[in-house]
Amino acid sequence: MKYKATTIKDIAKALNLSTSTVSRALRDSHEISAATKQVVLEYAARLNFQPNPIALSLKERKSHSIGVIVAEIANSFFSQIINGIESVANEQGYTVIISQSHENFEKEVRTLQYLASRSIDGLLISVSSATNDLQQLKSLHQSGLPIVFVDRSVEDIHTHKVVVDNYQGAYNATIHLLEQGYRRIACVANSEHLNITKERVGGYMAALQQYQLKPDPQMIKYCFHGGMLLHEVETAVSELIKLKPKPDAIFATSDKLTTGCMRMLKRHKIAVPKTIALTGFSNSELIELLHAPITVVQQPAFEMGQVATELLLQLIESKRPVKDFKTIKLQTRLVSPDNK
Question: What is the value of pTM for the model shown?
Answer without folding.
Answer: 0.81
